[in-house]
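Recap from last week: sequence in, structure out.
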Amino acid sequence: MGDFTHSAACLETTTMERNPRVPLHPDLRDYALSLLRSRVPLPQLKQHCRDWSRNKWGNTTGDPCFCYVLNDHETTSLYRSIARELGIPQRSAPQNNLDIWFRPNDPKPPDPRLTASCLSYIPHVPGETERFSIIISTPQQRELAWRYGHKKQVLMDLTFGFCSGRALLAILMVIDD
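Predicted structure tokens:
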């Protein structure tokens, strides 16, 4: 990548590891961002982008300047763009973002529904607590849990570990009639 106006000996030692990435077409990027703003799930977003691209450019995957296909690395870039729009700092630790969103005094969540969905938040305080704890449930999930729970009994299953950040996911279950 670049303008190679070096000597022949220099050019012989220069090798390209891989072809440079071709950026996503700006129109397709704008369309994908509009879908993310509308909270379209990722699998549906990819399908909508494929259909939109096929309608606009046919079956071509791109030209020398732009790509017409949404690749995996592009979705990361799109999510970062949305996070930047929402004011979610990408260079801070996740627990710091969560503390800003759920702290009892002056929370600043990226979406007010997060505040309504938080049942319990205990921040990590170095030297006092070992970890932070958060319980999130939509109002509809709470209502269904109590409606179908057997004598108001709700079971927790803590066997599902997920992500690389040493977090534990708890699944709540209820037993109906």
